[in-house]
Amino acid sequence: MTSSQLLDAFLVLVPILAAAYLAMLAWVSLSRGRRLTPAVQAEMENALAAYLCGSRELGALRALADAHPGHLCEMLLAYQVRVAARREELCELAMALGFVDRWLRETRSATLARRRTAFVRIATVAHHQPVFQKVRELACKASRDTDGQIRLNADRILLAGGRDVDITHVFEAAMMETSGIRSALAGELRLHAVALCENAIQWALRRENPLDILKILASWERALPLTDVGSLAKHPDRAVRLETMRLLRYLPATTRNQEALQHGLASQDAEIREAAAAAVQPGPADGSLQANHFADTAGSARWMDSPAPR
Known about the structure:
By secondary structure, the protein is an all-alpha fold. It has 21 helices and no strands. The chain has a domain of about 110 residues.
């Protein structure tokens, strides 16, 4: 598996890891309050193990959910990481035990901290389509919330659902967000980079100030099917021209992109010339993140730009 594939796999787990961390903190808080006896904790673990082994008799788990809802909830979230291969079944269980409905109610709490926690938890299980269908409308509204953490996790819910319209909405909203939220979403948007290049990214690059989007694209460190950044190489803002040269290594060597490269190489700005030169240096052949897509495709550029044979 290449470094890029490993990064993609890690990014899928980002919301789960965030929820697991939250679960750990909550577990510590609960333990300092009403501590579970070793017997009850063992009963919870055995009941979850039986469920994951195929038993769908939920009597014991329902009783535990009634008696110790907080502890069982946090154990379920922690298991999303401990047994990640069984995430879908754990999501089904969270729905069956009423936890998802409880989190939905808590999104309307008068307490901000409780609302934030509810959205983090929902984001953890939103990849499960029955959950996503239940929470999508809420997430769409919450993506315009006045609180940044709630907006962030509402966007994560929408990304987890995997619908093109929602992914585009999150990307476009991220361009108007604070730099912190934009950075937090950048990695998860990377998973949808190719689809976003069809329209949304090209639209964003035509904005008056495309600097933020250029920085996000470069941070993805992956090949992108953008065939024309010529106008950005001549942008009046030096920072835009520089980021365009840095991005070129991840773009195909089409005629227009090669023209952008030549413009950078001819620049009187030494830093821009250096960034342009780096775009044509061959990257390592080990599939690492620094592989140079521009250099790799330069040999096929003429074929890519030539008209189809008659």
